[in-house]
Amino acid sequence: MLYHDDQIMVLDFGQFGILNLKEMAEYSWLMEKSTLEMELETLQKEEELRLIHRKTDIEARDVIIEEKSSDILVLNLTGVGKLYVAELMGELLRRGEEIWPVKFKHAISRFREKIY
Questions:
Q1: Which range of residues forms the domain containing residue 59?
Q2: Which terminus of the chain has fewer Cβ atoms in its 10 Å neighbourhood, N or C?
């Protein structure tokens, strides 16, 4: 599914999707499929998105470096944030099934496991 209008774009990758709002172009949100569906229902009712009011925003950087996870991840599309997003998306698209919750073993962690 790809949905697009003047204010919002949604990309569907099967088990997860990306929501992009025109008014917040420097960020996108990566969501587990059921969470994305709830947000889209909220939009259809012309209510404000729940994700905007979340207090804890875990970014792609947090998933890669600190191995955090959430049902909604913030994709920071500015500065070095783009590099973390590219790395995370590459990993998710390579995995296929059972990718949620997002868990990312950082390259340093994998390297340490090989040494010890």
A1: 2-115
A2: C
